[in-house]
Design brief:
Elements (H helix, E strand, L loop, with lengths): L13 H9 L5 E3 H9 L11 E9 L2 E9 L9 E6 L2 E5 L9 E7 L12 H9 L4 E7 L4 E6 L6 E9 L5 E4 L22 E3 L7 H4 L11 E4 L2 E8 L10 E6 L9 E5 L2 E13 L3 H7 L7 E6 L5 E6 H5 L7 E2 L11 H5 L5 E4 L2 E4 L9 H5 L5 E2 L4 E6 L2 E10 L3 H17 L16
Parallel strand pairs: 1-2, 10-17, 11-24
Antiparallel strand pairs: 2-16, 3-6, 3-9, 4-5, 4-7, 5-6, 7-8, 9-14, 10-11, 12-13, 12-16, 13-14, 15-16, 17-18, 19-22, 20-21, 23-24
Length: about 450
């Protein structure tokens, strides 16, 4: 691999690359594989890669689901005025479905259960995808109340929509003040005086980091959302040219539980989503961005309260040499009477068992909060420390929680690669370019 050769056309097209995939001649690499080759000193040219599979997994608040399903026989009630799904409030409508016994509902991913402060829309959606039965409590326009049990297989229309997902770049947060702050950016009250740092973003794996000009990501681009085939529909809310994000949708029936879920923060439940996006490499300009490493991708460290920038670091400062997965060694558990990890885990991935803590890897988000909470040091991972010069002081700030799960983003990108190579997933050209409206 010695760089781009002279006989390669300056611009390739997505249909040309798909034809190459169909013939078995295409080179498809994950963003992680690209980065590993660069770090090993390998030069990569346009002839060395046709498609890069990218991914990101993290807290993505701008999420809602649209559901439509039967709850009674016709004429049992006129229309619903209030609906709860496992205690999570739903917006009834937009269609009232008068006297049909059918509900049309919109459920926000950040909606909170009225009975369980740690349970929200994200938990509900994952429970549904796992095939669990959910309780639907209906209050009708006539004041009648009734409950039914249902599950996703009995809900013919169930789509998840993104209003603000897959930010090109997000933020790192500290609390310079003296008092702890309850926030969606921490699972516990955020300690003050620069004692800790949290951050979001998968850096060099992120889809838009690899295609910042959105040359291949546009309206109609086929992607995987939580493992299900879906489509990009445009730019997201709060999207700006230098830090864009995406809207899109996919069918809940096809989603994979481990890529989604709820995340309990100190300000209430949040929602987790995973995007995997193919980036066909069309030209040398695109390749330049694809070859960027974490250390070349800026990450702003901001004041949690006012979002005031304090200093600029890079994703290399938070991901280089970090352990992507949290390790649990049950033999080190000292079986505390009250397990601080179980009490704090934002995913409910740790529980107090008869013989100590029990860890559920399939639920674990690899956020790392357990490391500082465990008295017996049974949980371990190198999360790192960041140096930041602010207020005339050079500070070493300890990372205590990650709100992006890079380990599963790596897995999602690998699965997308396999689907492309086997023909299960086909590349699509955007119907239109995304037009920025600031």
């Amino acid at each position: 691999m010695n760089g781009a050769s002279d006989n390669i056309e300056e611009n390739r097209t997505i249909p040309e690359i798909q034809t190459k995939i169909d013939s078995g001649d295409a080179v498809v690499l994950t963003a992680e594989e690209i980065a590993a080759r660069i770090r090993a000193g390998v030069e990569i040219g346009l002839e060395d890669v046709d498609v890069v599979t990218t991914a990101t997994r993290g807290i993505m608040s701008g999420t809602y689901a649209v559901l439509s399903f039967k709850v009674s026989e016709p004429d049992f009630f006129v229309k619903a005025s209030k609906v709860l799904l496992n205690g999570v409030p739903a917006v009834v409508g937009p269609c009232p479905n008068e006297r049909l016994g059918v509900l049309d509902l919109i459920v926000l991913g950040t909606a909170h259960s009225i009975s369980d402060y740690r349970y929200g829309g994200g938990h509900l959606f994952r429970d549904m995808v796992e095939g669990k039965s959910i309780t639907v409590d209906v209050t009708t326009s006539e004041g009648k109340r009734f409950s039914v049990e249902t599950c996703l297989s009995e809900i013919p229309f169930a789509r998840l929509y993104a209003t603000r997902h897959a930010f090109k770049n997000y933020r790192a947060f500290v609390n310079p003040g003296k008092e702890p702050i309850k926030t969606i950016f921490h699972a516990l009250p955020f300690e003050g005086e620069f004692k800790e740092m949290t951050f979001c973003g998968c850096g060099e794996l992120n889809p838009i980091e690899n295609d910042p000009k959105l040359e291949t990501i546009g309206i109609g681009t086929r992607v995987l959302i939580n493992g299900a085939e879906g489509f990009v529909t445009g730019q997201g809310t709060r999207s700006v040219p230098d830090n864009p994000n995406l809207t899109g949708f996919a069918d809940l029936h096809d989603m994979v539980p481990e890529y989604m879920g709820g995340f309990a923060t100190s300000a209430g439940p949040e929602i987790i989503n995973t995007w995997a996006v193919p980036i066909p490499v069309l030209n040398e300009g695109m390749l330049e961005n694809i070859l960027k490493l974490d250390s070349q991708i800026p990450l702003k460290l901001v004041d949690l309260a006012g979002r005031i920038p304090l200093c600029e670091i890079t994703y290399g400062d938070v991901w280089d040499n970090a352990d992507l997965k949290v390790k649990y060694e049950p033999e080190k558990c000292i079986d505390c009477k009250a397990c601080l990890v179980a009490e704090a885990c934002p995913m409910g991935a740790v529980s107090k068992g008869e013989n100590g803590a029990e860890h559920s890897p399939e639920l674990c988000f690899n956020c790392g909060l357990c490391i500082t909470r465990c008295r017996g040091e049974a949980f371990s991972a190198n999360l790192g420390t960041v140096k930041c010069s602010t207020g005339g002081c050079l500070r070493d700030i300890k990372i205590t929680l990650r709100q992006s799960d890079r380990a599963r983003a790596v897995k999602a990108a690998q699965e997308l690669k396999e689907q492309i190579l086997t023909g299960k997933f086909r590349l699509t050209e955007p119907v239109e370019k995304i037009i920025w409206r600031e």
